[in-house]
Design goal:
This protein has 738 residues and is an alpha+beta fold. Helices cover 17% and strands 36% of the residues. It contains twelve helices and 43 strands. The strands form ten sheets. Strands 36-37-39-38-40-41-42-43 form an eight-stranded mixed sheet, sandwiched between helices. Strands 13, 14, 15, 18 and 19 form a five-stranded antiparallel sheet that branches.
C-alpha cells in the first residue's frame, strides 16, 4: 500500500511540472526544482586527492572519504562507525571537521545552533586516529555553547570559546584552562557583536600563535551601545523581549581591542592601537607565519582609511606598516598570502581605479602590481608561488559573467583566460594549492550547476561529479519564458538589464511589467547565473507578466572604482534616478510593455529602492511591493550605512533625501509592505514607522506581518509558500493581466 501511495505521489509530482506549468507549492514547499551540489570538498595536503562526506548505509551518518584525483580510487578515511560515542546508537552528525596539522587527530563540530546568520555554536569532539578514542570536549562548559574550536599547532590542545570566554583544553589530561574570565553579556571575548559579524564578516575571534605558546584575540565591550529589542509573542503566554546591542547610524559602537595571552593562562596584554576604539574598527587580525607578530587592519569610522599595523606579541610594540585610503570607502579583502620566506605579502586594492592584487614588502616600503589591466579582479582563487601564478575570477568584457584568469606573480604578463570559450556564463573553482586540479562549477541562466573535476592546466574534464541533468530536463519540460540581456543607454552611463517575456509571448499585445530591483552596493540582480532557475520570476511570466531587472550605478559588479563609488553619499538617490531613466528607455525599446501597468518589487535594500521609485516617480511606477525594507537609513546599522553614506553629521540631508519614508506623502499608486517581526537585521521598526507615516498622510496601502520571522521570512511551517501566495495575490489584484 505504501508503495502504491508513493507511486501516485511521484506521478502527481511529475504531472505538475511535465505539463509546462509552474506551481508555487512545487517551488517553495515540495523542493521539486532543487539542484544537487557536490561535497563539501576539501583538497588533501598532498594535492593528489580530495575528501568529501558520504552516507554510510550500515551505521548511518557520514563517512569521510578520499578520492584520488586522477584515478578516482576511493578510500574511507574515517568511517561513521568510529564516530559513535560510547553508549550511543547513532554516529555524530558532522557539521564541520578539521584535521590536525600532523593528520593524527580529527576535530568534529556537531549538534549546532544558529547565532544570527550562521550555525557557529554547538559541541566538539576529537577522534584520535591512532587509538580510535572519541572524546567530547568542554566538560566544564554548558552543552552546545562552544564556538570556533581549533587545534594548537602541535595538536596537543584545543582552544575554543564558550559564553564569551576563551578556553584551552589538554587532549592528554582533559584539563581545561580558562584564558579569560570576564566574559559577560557586555564583554565578548574571542567572538564579536552583531554588527561586526554582519558587516565585517568577523566571527571567529581568536588565533593560535605559530609556536602554540600564545593566543591573540579580540575583545568587544558593548556597554554604551544601543540595545534593540525583538519581541517574541509566539512561544509563551507572555511576550519575551530579545535584547541585543545594535549600533544604528550615528550611535556608539562597541569598544574593540586586541590582546595576547599565554596559552597556558595568565594576564592578557593589550595592544595600544591609536584612536578611539569606539570610532575605529579592528577589522582583521592574524599572526604572520613563523613569527611572534600579528598583522592588524584598522578601519576608521568613515571606512575610507585602512591602517595596517604589525604588533609584537612579546613586547606589545606596534609598527605602522602602510595605509590604504580612498575618497569614498574601502572594502576589506581576505586575500593576504605570505611569500618569499614571509618577507612579502599580497594585498588587494583599487588604488589605480580597478581592483587588483599587489605584492607588498614586510616593511611596507615596496609595492608592485601582480594583476593589471582595465578590469576588476572579482576574487582570488589560488596563489601558487611555486608555479609562479595567481588564479582569479574576472570578467573584463561582460559584467554579467565570470571567468577564471591567471597572471604571473612577477606582474609581467597579460591576463590569461583559463575558462573555456564555449561555456558563456559563470564559472567557479575550488583549486588544489599546487594549481594542478580543480573542482569546477559552470552555470548560466538556462544551465543549472555542472560540476566536474578538471586538470586545471588544460581545463580538461577528468570526471563529471554532478551535471544536474534530471533537473535540466524537468526545467526544459516547463518551456519557460526567455530571459534576454540588454544594454540601456541612459545618457550618463550604459546599464546592464534583463527582460523576461511570457512563454506564449505575442509582441502585438500589451503586457504589464514588474521590475525586480536591489540597487545597493552589496549585490547585483543582473547576472548570467542559474539562481535557482529564477523560478519566482518565471512563475510571474507564466501568469502573463513581463519581468525585468536593471543594475544601476553602484551595484556590486566588476565595472571599476568610478562605477562603485559613484553611489557614495547618495544611497537611494542616484539609484532611483538610474532605475527610472532605464525604465523609460526600456519602454521605448519594447513597445509591447503597457506603461499604465508598471510594478516594482524588491527585498531588503531592494524594498527601500522599490518605495523610493514608487514615491518619487509615480508617472512611471503604478504599484510596488517592498519586503523587509529599510524605511529610514538612520535606523539601519552604522557600519553598512556609514560606509556608503558617510557620517550622519556630515551628510544628514542625503540620509533623509535617500530614505523612502521622507517621500511617503507622495504615494499615488498601490503599495504593499511585508516584514518579519523577528528581523534582527532590518528591524520591524522600519515597517511600523513607514505604516505610521502613510497613515499620517491618509495613504491607503496593503500590509502583511510574519510573526517572529527573520530577514529571510523563511522560518516556521509553510512560511515561504504563504509569502509567495500573498505576493502573487497582490500583483493579480493591482496589475491585472488581460
Amino acid at each position: 500500500m505504501k508503495n502504491i501511495i508513493l507511486l501516485l505521489l511521484l506521478c502527481f509530482s511529475f504531472a505538475s511540472w511535465s505539463q509546462g506549468t509552474l506551481a508555487l507549492v512545487d517551488i517553495y514547499k515540495n523542493d521539486t526544482y532543487r539542484q544537487k551540489g557536490f561535497g563539501p570538498v576539501r583538497w588533501m595536503k598532498d594535492n593528489e586527492g580530495y575528501s568529501t562526506l558520504e552516507r554510510n548505509g550500515t551505521f548511518g551518518g557520514y563517512d569521510i572519504v578520499r578520492y584520488e584525483a586522477t584515478s578516482g580510487a576511493r578510500s574511507v578515511l574515517v568511517s561513521s562507525e568510529k564516530l559513535i560515542p560510547d553508549g550511543a546508537s547513532q554516529p555524530l552528525t558532522i557539521a564541520n571537521y578539521e584535521w590536525s596539522m600532523d593528520n593524527s587527530k580529527l576535530l568534529i563540530f556537531t549538534n549546532t545552533r544558529k547565532v544570527w546568520r550562521y550555525h557557529t555554536r554547538g559541541d566538539y569532539w576529537v577522534l584520535d586516529l591512532m587509538s580510535g578514542d572519541l572524546t567530547q570536549l568542554g566538560s566544564a562548559v554548558k552543552a552546545t555553547t562552544m564556538m570556533f574550536a581549533k587545534f594548537s599547532p602541535d595538536a596537543t590542545r584545543v582552544g575554543y570559546v564558550s559564553e564569551n570566554n576563551i578556553y584551552v583544553e589538554s587532549l592528554e589530561s582533559g584539563a581545561i584552562t580558562p584564558l579569560t574570565t570576564d566574559g559577560s553579556a557586555s564583554i565578548i571575548n574571542g567572538t564579536f557583536d552583531w554588527v561586526y559579524e554582519e558587516e565585517l564578516s568577523c566571527r571567529d575571534g581568536f588565533r593560535w600563535s605559530p609556536d602554540g605558546t600564545q593566543i591573540a584575540y579580540w575583545q568587544s565591550n558593548t556597554e554604551g551601545t544601543g540595545t534593540f529589542y525583538l519581541i517574541n509573542n509566539l512561544d509563551s503566554n507572555y511576550s519575551q523581549p530579545i535584547p541585543f546591542p545594535y549600533p544604528k547610524v550615528g550611535t556608539s559602537n562597541s569598544a574593540v581591542k586586541v590582546g595576547v595571552v599565554s596559552s597556558s593562562g595568565g594576564q592578557t596584554q593589550w595592544f595600544d592601537v591609536p584612536g578611539d576604539p569606539r570610532n575605529n574598527y579592528l577589522a582583521r587580525m592574524d599572526f604572520i607565519p613563523n613569527s611572534s607578530e600579528v598583522m592588524i587592519q584598522q578601519l576608521n569610522r568613515k571606512q575610507n582609511k585602512n591602517t595596517v599595523w604589525t604588533g609584537n606579541t612579546h613586547t606589545m610594540a606596534l609598527t605602522s606598516l602602510f595605509t590604504d585610503e580612498d575618497k569614498a570607502f574601502l572594502d576589506i579583502h581576505d586575500n593576504i598570502r605570505w611569500l618569499d620566506h614571509d618577507q612579502y605579502f599580497t594585498w588587494t586594492s583599487e588604488k589605480d581605479g580597478w581592483l587588483h592584487l599587489y605584492k607588498v614588502s614586510r616593511d611596507g616600503k615596496k609595492m608592485s602590481t601582480i594583476t593589471q589591466g582595465d578590469f576588476d579582479v572579482v576574487s582570488i582563487n589560488c596563489i601558487d608561488p611555486e608555479g609562479g601564478y595567481v588564479y582569479y575570477i574576472a570578467s573584463p568584457e561582460n559584467y554579467t559573467q565570470r571567468y577564471l584568469y591567471r597572471s604571473k606573480m612577477d606582474g609581467n604578463s597579460a591576463p590569461e583566460r583559463m575558462s573555456p570559450a564555449d561555456q558563456p556564463g559563470q564559472h567557479a573553482y575550488q583549486i588544489s594549492s599546487n594549481a594542478k586540479y580543480a573542482i569546477h562549477t559552470f552555470q548560466n541562466t538556462t544551465t543549472p550547476n555542472k560540476i566536474d573535476l578538471i586538470n586545471l592546466q588544460d581545463h580538461k574534464t577528468i570526471r563529471v561529479l554532478e551535471d544536474n541533468s534530471m533537473l535540466a530536463a524537468r526545467i526544459n519540460a516547463l518551456r519557460l519564458g526567455r530571459k534576454e540581456f540588454v544594454k540601456l543607454d541612459i545618457g550618463a552611463v550604459v546599464l546592464d538589464a534583463w527582460i523576461l517575456t511570457p512563454p506564449k509571448f505575442d509582441p502585438s499585445k500589451k503586457y504589464p511589467i514588474i521590475f525586480y530591483v536591489y540597487g545597493e552596493p552589496a549585490g547585483s540582480t543582473v547576472q548570467d547565473a542559474w539562481q535557482g532557475g529564477d523560478l519566482w520570476h518565471q512563475f510571474l511570466a507564466q501568469q502573463g507578466y513581463v519581468v525585468a531587472s536593471i543594475d544601476n550605478r553602484g551595484t556590486n559588479t566588476p565595472r571599476g572604482q568610478v562605477w562603485r563609488k559613484s553611489i557614495y553619499g547618495q544611497i537611494g538617490i542616484l539609484a532611483a534616478h538610474d532605475q527610472a531613466a532605464a525604465a523609460s528607455k526600456l519602454f521605448q525599446m519594447f513597445p509591447y510593455i503597457d506603461t499604465s501597468r508598471v510594478g516594482i518589487w524588491g527585498w531588503s535594500g531592494g524594498g527601500q529602492m522599490t518605495m523610493n521609485c514608487l514615491f518619487r516617480y509615480p508617472k512611471i511606477y503604478k504599484a510596488g511591493l517592498a519586503v523587509s525594507f529599510v524605511a529610514d537609513q538612520r535606523l539601519y546599522d552604522n557600519i553598512y550605512q556609514e560606509r556608503y553614506m558617510g557620517l550622519l553629521e556630515e551628510n544628514e540631508e542625503n540620509y533623509i533625501a535617500g530614505s523612502p519614508i521622507s517621500h511617503a506623502k507622495d504615494l499615488e499608486g498601490n503599495l504593499m509592505i511585508i516584514h518579519g517581526t523577528g528581523d534582527d537585521n532590518v528591524h520591524y521598526q522600519n515597517f511600523e514607522r513607514m505604516a505610521n507615516e502613510l497613515i499620517k498622510y491618509n495613504k491607503l496601502f496593503d500590509m502583511m506581518s510574519y510573526p517572529m520571522r527573520t530577514h529571510s521570512i523563511s522560518e516556521r511551517e509553510n512560511t515561504s509558500l504563504h509569502l509567495r501566495e500573498t505576493m502573487i495575490s497582490y500583483w493579480k489584484r493591482v496589475l491585472p493581466v488581460n
